Amino acid sequence: MFGSNEAERHRVAVTVTLISGAIFNGHVFLGQAQKLRDLLNNPDTFIDFEMRDNPMTMIAKRAIATISAIDLPRTDHLFRRANGSATFDPYHTLGVDPAANPGEVRAAYLAKARLYHPDKLASKDVPKEVGEYMNAMFIRIQRAYDELETHRTLA
């Protein structure tokens, strides 16, 4: 993709498996209307690949066995749903039955909060999208617990 305008390209998270069996997670860069298959079928011999720890490299297309897009959830949907959507179900978010007692609700909340707490990844080098997802999920879990606690104290 030499010579292409950087502003016209967008990053796509992918998993690349080489013929040698090596597996890499990172990003490739596509044009605005370009699909992953278009990138692989163009006449270029190499693709630009950004590894998770951000070094840019080139991968020869002939060395690729498979390449697949990683479907990361968009964080804006999580924030929107966490901020008052009519379809928000705190029981489903925490993974408990509506008939669950307060102890079960609290245990489910603590388990999910530990799993998705943003500080869990603070010392690790993870993609920005993962951190945003963890933060959005943590907010959603906190909101679900707060809603169930408020409901319980009013009942």
According to CATH, the fold-level topology of the largest domain is: Helix Hairpins
Category by helix and strand content: alpha+beta
The succession of helices and strands, N to C, reads EEHEEEHHHH
Average per-residue pLDDT, rounded, comes to 80
Describe the structure in brief.
This protein is of the alpha+beta class and 155 residues long. The protein has five helices and five strands; from the N terminus they run E-E-H-E-E-E-H-H-H-H.
Can you tell me about this structure?
There is one protein chain. Helices cover 39% and strands 23% of the residues. It has 5 helices and 5 strands, in the order E-E-H-E-E-E-H-H-H-H. The chain has helices at residues 36-41, 75-82, 90-94, 102-116, 128-154; strands at residues 9-18, 23-31, 46-51, 56-60, 64-69. It has a 5-stranded antiparallel beta sheet with strand order 4-3-2-1-5. The model is unreliable at 1-5 (pLDDT under 50).
Topology:
Elements: E1 9-18, E2 23-31, H1 36-41, E3 46-51, E4 56-60, E5 64-69, H2 75-82, H3 90-94, H4 102-116, H5 128-154
Antiparallel strand pairs: 1-2, 1-5, 2-3, 3-4
Helix pairs in contact: 2-5, 4-5
